[in-house]
Amino acid sequence: MAAAQRKLLEELMGSAAIGGVPDLSNFRDEKICKSFLCGLCPYEIFTNTKADLGPCHKVHVEKLKKDYEKDLEKGGKDFLREFLSDLRTFIGECDKKIRQNQSRLDKTPEDKRVGALVNEIADLANEINTINKIVESLGEEGKVMDALAALKKADELTVVRSSKEAELLNLTQGGNPQANKLRVCEICSSYLSIYDSDRRLADHFSGKMHLGFLLIRDKVKELEEKLASKDEESRSHRDEKRDSEPRKHDDRRDRDRDRERDRDRDRDRDRRRDDYRRDDYRRDDRRRSRSPYRRRR
To answer: Where is the segment annotated Disordered (predicted)?
Structure first.
């Protein structure tokens, strides 16, 4: 009974009106999320994080995504520019928040040496985290010697970082308010403490929110390079087409010139033929005028 009533309501009001998916059959419909079709909708990335954007205001339909992919295989038009525009919007909001958070930190007075150490420690933490990822990748590929060399480099940087942290601690001990110094993550805008343990930093860098913004930033860079290459190919094609136009005009002028030359040649031939006929007629006329019969008359 409930199913029948639901079906009746769908027929009268549409499935979207009662919480279902709208009856859309074309992926080009403006209500369809183009970012979802292209494989990466930001609204889905940050679910249950501090950057949770809530549900996407457009429709996600898996079947239409497959239809879009099939259309691309046949040479159909893509939505990459619209996709790039959407991603840039999210990155722009994140960058704005990064500047705001950094501005708040910059307003806090601090010793120059403290500030320098903070930046150095932050850079070392990022470098160590990057090398650790490389070590994992090399290990999965079976490149043991390369992985060990990279791990040794990470250990050396960890020693340097510990030394700088000890120096910073000596400068800030005694209840100094800088003891809990913060910095801003340049990927996701989160605050990080320079005294966070490697484990805590690793949790941040591998967290859903940080990886989500990192994924979007990488995708934006990839799309910008792809579309720039595509635009360059289009310009080259237009230039080649434009360069070929003068040759076509030259060929047309040559053909017109040849036709005019042929017409002139035909006119000269006709003129000579007519002249010859007139001369022949005159000779015949003179011969007739000299005949004995005409003289006797």
So the answer is: 226-272
Dist CA 182 CA 179 (whole Å): 9
Report how far residue 210's alpha carbon sits from residue 201's, in angstroms, rounded to the nearest whole number: 11
| Residue 218, token pair as written in the block | 């990488």
| Contact (Cβ atoms closer than 8 angstroms) between residue 122 and residue 204 | no
Q: Which two tokens stand for residue 102?
A: 């950094």
User: How do the pLDDT tens digits run along the chain, 297 residues long?
Assistant: 455 655 555 444 445 544 555 556 788 888 899 999 999 998 988 888 888 888 888 989 888 999 998 888 888 888 999 999 999 998 999 999 999 888 877 766 555 667 777 778 888 888 888 888 888 888 888 888 888 888 888 888 888 888 887 777 776 654 444 445 778 899 998 888 877 777 888 888 889 999 999 999 999 999 999 898 888 887 877 767 666 655 555 566 667 677 777 776 767 676 766 666 666 556 655 555 555 544 444
Residue the block writes with tokens 């040794």 = 152
Nearest residue to 90 via CA among 216, 226, 248: 216
Distance of CA 296 to the CA centre of its chain: 108
Mark out the alpha helices in 107-207 (DSSP H runs): 112-140, 144-172, 198-205
**Strand (E) or helix (H) holding 107:** none
